[in-house]
Amino acid sequence: MTRSPWHLASLVFFCCLGLATHLGAQSAGDPRATQDPRTVSDPRTSTDPRDAELKPSVEARLNPPRGSDLFDQLYDNGNLAALSDVLIKYQWDLSDYIYDQCNSWVSMTNNESASPRSADAASEKLETKVREIARLSDLGIGDTRFRYYIEKIFNMDADQRIQREEQIEFLARGANVIETASSAQETLQALTSLRQSLSRALKLGDLRGQSRANSLIARAQILNQRPTGARANAREAIRVGQSVRDMNSIWNGWATIIEASLALNDFAGTKQGLQEQHQLALQVGDERTADLILQQLLRLEQALGTYLPDTLIIYGPRIDQPIRRF
Question: Which superfamily does 158-325 belong to?
């Protein structure tokens, strides 16, 4: 009888399966198939435990912490000598850091959900920390601006602390409108919130809040072709921002002045703005930004008295995202 290929294949399959089962059963009963207990893995092939100890130090060298992370780390470790040096080196980071710490203190103090005893302990600990960092900062820099600023905050009464939280909320709301607006016209909606924030900052004597509000008001104005008002508010943002070393307000203020001066055909004002931004970049050690600004200055110098260069770029808070190109 003729066998089909499929029949032959099935016979081969089942024969192999039976043989494998038989050999497996035979191996299972053979004690020689078990692992020799004397066989152990060579410990030299495992990971060297010293590698784990090296990794943190290598990462710290390659990615050193900056700003607030480094301030906190050194303070928590009690290394005040190193902290003093770092505060001087990164003094332009201090305004944001102290501002955020004071905001946390205000929130803790106003928080009614926590038990009074735990809230008091946490706020007192934070207040002690901020006072010490402000003291070391002023001592290293050679002035009293940060101690003056924090005393304003720590001496607020309950109503003033509530007003401060409202001020911060209005500022954030206005900034968000400018950031997410799909047209220049939409940014005008931010002015109401920003002016509310500025009003409270003036009443509370919050210099950093004043500089930020003025800076954002100027930004909304220049986006809507109001160069005169924008330049006035930008100058005020710079003036007040310098008193608390608020780099964000100072830098963006000069960016707005550059743009407003161009709109008013005031090339001397444009040149001044670029020069100020160049100096700021050098002060914080940002050589790349300083070089880019210097290139713009050279182009402007070449063009003065003849025509407006079409390659001038106004840089905002992020150098890789120019505010506007001309």
Answer: Tetratricopeptide repeat domain (1.25.40.10)
